[in-house]
Design brief:
The chain is mainly α. 43% of the residues lie in helices and 9% in strands. The strands form 5 sheets. A 3-stranded antiparallel sheet has the order 3-4-7. Strands 1-2 form a two-stranded parallel sheet. It has a two-stranded antiparallel sheet with strand order 5-6.
């Protein structure tokens, strides 16, 4: 078998959407699995949608996520250039070749006429009006400077069938196919034309893309047939849904890779989760490194049904990666969030890491979960109630003065020393440990739930602030 060559061909229209990143990931994994090559091609023929800096975002995202392509604009290769706008002169000659063979024709219809082509259901479909123009008339109108496009001459009878590796045999009635534009009036090719030409010229023999192209593929195959070229293998992927009714969409502002990174998700967790949006390994494992994905990926594991993007599951998966990070690596990754918060300069980041690392799902959780370390407000005394610990505000009135007295005597202000001191309070007064630990934590945090217990929080706050908070809490109970 020939060397497998697949491609990722994004348009530079902004951030790299989750669906696009999944296409790149699957294409990379399949190429690795088959010992083939992944080609990056930038499809920028729609200059109206071009976003400055978007190409650099594509490069950066692929490199950060470990999706390493073998050929592309920034790495070179034998089939360049790998940017469509730099291949402009290639497309027109192929379109003219199709005109000569009768598989395409020049169309001079105005926008007004095209707008008038509505059927009884309000659908617009071109009516082959210019197909009948003689060669002489076409040449005269071009010479006169009239604007034109080149359209594909679709068959009107029969059907076109092709095989997809995920969805099986797909048949489309030819009568449903419109004479699509191949070359626009500005001389640039449409996506539908350029991708076929480029795939052939770049020896792409495996095309992986979203299910939205499932019904368009017969148009592409008719072009392959018109040129007498070998068709590629097709692998279409199920859509990624926001919910049961709505597709995840960049146009609707749904998350891109960079959005997720800014929210505090780790790149390894993002890649891992995206791999599971439409594919599952035979062993049903969920947490997988890139090396494991490369080893386990298979076309047979791609699902036909849509996948719903679940932020809760992504956060859970991300938390697993965070828990496994070495503490020094966690601190460095957390530093941007901590440096831009009131925690900066007041607390030792390594100590904060001990408290928070195992208790967050994203790095964006850090500052909100630690806000109690730099803000302390009056709180409802009902928080002292805990049925399991058998505590309430009345017990807290008795417990907290004892806690204050004990902590005042502590000289080694460390977690273990503080914890031992609190247990001594319980033992000396015949209370259960929880009857001291719960009220103490409520008093110094003002919250029902916090990362870390009373002694952990107190060690971070320091002696002066801890005693200050205990004093305020006791005053509020009077």
């Amino acid at each position: 078998m020939k060397e497998l060559r697949t491609r990722f061909a994004p348009s530079p229209t902004g951030y790299l959407h989750i669906g696009g990143l999944r296409t790149a990931l699957y294409s990379y994994l399949y190429a690795k699995k088959k010992g083939g090559k992944l080609v990056l091609r930038i499809e920028d023929t729609d200059q109206g949608r071009y976003v400055e800096g978007a190409v650099e975002i594509i490069y950066r995202t692929l490199h950060e996520t470990g999706i390493i392509y073998d050929e592309g604009p920034d790495v070179g290769g034998d089939y360049g250039p790998y940017i469509q706008s730099e291949r402009k002169n290639e497309y027109l000659k192929y379109a003219q070749q199709l005109v000569e063979s009768g598989h395409a024709y020049y169309c001079f219809c105005t926008e007004e006429r095209l707008q008038s082509l509505l059927d009884e259901n309000g659908n617009r479909k071109y009516d082959k009006h210019c197909l009948s123009l003689s060669k002489e008339e076409v040449e005269r109108r071009i010479a006169a400077g009239e604007k034109y496009v080149i359209r594909q001459n679709m068959p009107t009878e029969g059907s076109t069938t092709y095989h997809d590796e995920v969805y099986g045999d797909i048949t489309i009635e030819n009568s449903e196919l419109e004479d699509q534009v191949l070359i626009k009036s500005d001389g640039m090719p449409t996506y539908n034309f350029a991708n076929v030409i480029d795939d052939h010229l770049m020896a792409i023999n495996c095309v992986m893309r979203g299910i939205e192209y499932l019904s368009s593929t017969p148009k592409y195959n008719l072009l392959y047939e018109a040129f007498g070229w070998e068709k590629p293998m097709y692998i279409h992927m199920p859509p990624i849904m926001k919910d049961a009714q709505h597709k995840l969409s960049k146009r609707n502002g749904d998350a891109s890779y960079e959005d997720l990174v800014k929210k505090g998700f780790l790149k390894d967790a993002i890649v891992n989760y995206i791999a599971l949006l439409g594919w599952s390994p035979k062993d049903d494992s969920e947490k997988m490194s890139m090396a494991e994905l490369e080893q386990k990926f298979s076309i047979e594991g791609i699902n036909k049904s849509p996948s719903i993007f679940d932020p809760v599951k992504l956060a859970w998966l991300n938390s697993l990666y965070i828990k496994e990070m070495p503490q020094d690596e966690f601190v460095e990754y957390a530093r941007p969030w901590l440096d831009n918060s009131p925690l900066c300069g007041k607390f030792d980041y390594n100590e904060l890491a001990k408290l928070i690392q195992s208790r967050i799902e994203t790095f964006g959780d850090i500052v909100p979960k630690l806000e109690f370390l730099y803000t302390y407000n009056n709180f409802d005394s009902a928080l002292y109630f805990n049925k399991k610990q058998k505590t309430d505000a009345e017990l807290a009135k008795i417990v907290l003065p004892k806690v204050y007295e004990k902590l005042e005597t502590v000289t080694d202000w460390q977690n273990q020393s503080l914890y031992n001191a609190l247990l001594e309070v319980a033992q000396e007064n015949g209370w259960k440990n929880g009857q001291v630990l719960w009220p103490a934590r409520i008093a110094i945090t003002g919250l029902e739930a916090t990362p870390g217990g009373a002694s952990e929080v107190a060690s971070l706050l320091g002696k002066e602030e801890t005693l200050r908070r205990l004093s305020l809490a006791m005053e509020n109970l009077k």
